[in-house]
Design brief:
The chain is α/β, with parallel strands linked by helices. It has helices at 21-35, 41-54, 111-124, 129-135, 139-147, 151-154, and strands spanning 7-16, 58-60, 63-64, 67-70, 77-87, 97-106.
């Protein structure tokens, strides 16, 4: 499995309590803004909403990959959240979403943004990975699973 270098232990949310798509995006934007100094929560949220207006980032099998580019971001940033309950997200297959991977990229990222998006999608489509994500005992185990590190390295 490929390693997600743009994911950190602090950007793993093992149990997100949100009941609607907009609430999920708001919570992810708030959490991202806390980890990305100089970025505004509202700007992140509006970027995600704007992308969702083009079409849902719910790719099916209970997974969504909201993403966007931001002018003041200087690196790729990833965040994964496991929802405590599947939530309507207008996914392609009509299923509720319970695994969300946020991907933010610098405005000038070009192909790097698309490569990172493809990498996340590829990992989330690996046989058995979604079951392991859903069954991970905590944030450290979830981080270790997505980065090929041991849980002790994640702590």
């Amino acid at each position: 499995m490929a390693v997600l270098e743009f994911l950190s232990p602090d950007s793993v949310i093992p149990s997100l309590k949100a009941r609607a798509k907009k609430q999920i995006l708001q919570e992810l934007a708030a959490q991202a803004a806390r980890q990305l100094p100089g970025l505004d929560e509202r700007e992140i949220f509006e970027t995600l909403l704007q992308r969702e207006r083009l079409g849902s980032t719910g790719i099916g099998d209970g997974v969504a990959i909201p993403h966007g580019k931001l002018a003041h971001l200087d690196r790729l940033f990833g965040m994964v959240a496991r929802l405590d309950k599947p939530t309507e997200f207008e996914a392609l297959d009509g299923q509720g979403v319970d695994v969300v991977f946020l991907l933010l990229a610098p405005e000038n990222a070009g192909a790097d943004h698309l490569k990172a998006l493809a990498q996340v999608a590829r990992i989330l489509r690996e046989p058995g990975i979604l079951d392991r994500i859903r069954n991970a005992r905590d944030g450290n185990a979830l981080y270790a699973l997505l980065t090929n590190r041991s849980a002790s390295q994640a702590a």
